Amino acid sequence: MTLGLRILALCLLTVAAACAPRPVAMRAPPDPAATIVPVFGISGRRLDTGKPTFGTDRPRQVQHFRVDVSLPPTHRPGQIEWPDGPPDAATDFVVTAAGTYPDAHALVADMRRTVPGRESLLYVHGYNNTLSEATFRMAQILHDFEVKMPGLVFAWPSAGDPRGYLYDRDSVLFARDDLEASLRALAARPGERVFLLAHSMGAHLTMETLRQIALKGDRALLNRISGVALISPDIDPDLFGRQAAAIGTLPQPFVIFISRVDRALTLSGLVTGRKPRLGAIAGAEEVRRPDVQVIDLTDLADGTALNHFIAVTSPEAIELLTNSMARSERAGRSLLRTLADQLPGGPPVPR
Questions:
Q1: Is the peptide bond before 253 cis (omega within 30 degrees of 0)?
Q2: Which residues contact 278 (CB under 8 A, 6 or more apart)?
Q3: Which of 82, 160, 260, 301 has the largest CB neighbor count within 10 A?
């Protein structure tokens, strides 16, 4: 297919996707057999809508919130069971309670009371995400990976619309200060640490924020980052190299999940210059840093969501990663070395 035809296909796909209705988080009475997952959030967008906000002004202040998400007893790993009709907690993801906080201090205080522990998991969503989608995805991740620490979503002002790719790239730069401030709030007290989980364009926001902190010389805050996982990062590999060099010593562990069959990043590559994005590179050897672990999930792709979130949407990948994390923790081994024993071909393991 010529470049012109590819761009035409991309345009048609974008228009079709933009016309499709987006699901919205809905309230429903709780079901006794359902599982309630508290999701805390820091939002750079309005909280009065979970719908796309393409073309609207970006709010100047972040807001802090909590949503109790109910996962149905019929939940399948990797899935978000959106209501198909009136919401029912017996079969759907639903909201059973929600509220806001006046500031980050109040959020952190309630979070520490609700979920024990001094470490937090902060999820930075990707391009074309609505607030509803990001919140429910965080709940699914916390449940499916049996995460014991409190989980928060950093909801930067994505347009939530496939036509908003360039809008979202600007929003990433717009949100750097807010993400930095959020990290400071979450790691303000002695012993508090934050693990960053970023997807797609959210990985670009994460790297830009870590770079910004490093350029300020604030190693104390960087040392409070207990690890970073970039899933299908929508970043130019050359840019990632510059970002990592500016950060210097990267938080550990630092893991990148890639897939050579990521169709969303293939489209992104066409838009940005026909060059593979970081999440779709050929292999670990293209990241020339010994402090970065690259895990190739290509063989676990099942076609869900354009193979753009394999680590979180593929039941096989979820089972593999969950078991590997538990085994590596018990054995005192690195996650990468444990995965090397299990993935077909295995990722290269630094000696």
A1: yes
A2: 203, 230, 233, 234, 235, 236, 237, 240, 256, 258, 287
A3: 160
pLDDT tens for 186-221 read: 999 999 999 999 999 999 999 999 999 999 999 999
Asked whether residue 69 is assigned to any structural domain, the reply reads yes
Q: How far apart are CA 256 and CA 141, in angstroms?
A: 17
> Residue 33 belongs to what domain range?
3-231
Tokens 């593979």 found at: 276
Which tokens hold the place of 209?
A: 């924020």
- Report which residue type is found at 192: E
Q: Could you give the strand order of the β-sheet that contains 35-43, starting from the edge strand earlier in sequence?
A: 94-101, 63-71, 35-43, 151-155, 119-124, 193-199, 225-231, 254-258, 293-296
CATH of the domain at 174: 3.40.50
Strands 94-101 and 63-71, bridge-based pairing: antiparallel
Burial letters 314-343, b for 16+ CB under 10 A, else e:
beebbebbeebeeebeeeeebbbbbbbeeb
Count up the domains in the chain and report the number: 1
Contact 304, 80 (CB under 8 A): no
Q: Is residue 334 part of a domain?
A: no
- Dump pLDDT digits (tens) for 118-130: 999 999 999 999 9
Would 179 be classed as within a structural domain?
yes
Residue 272 inside a domain? The answer is: no
Cβ atoms of residues 64 and 106 within 8 Å: yes
Among 248, 256, 174, 237, which residue's Cα sits nearest to residue 210? 248
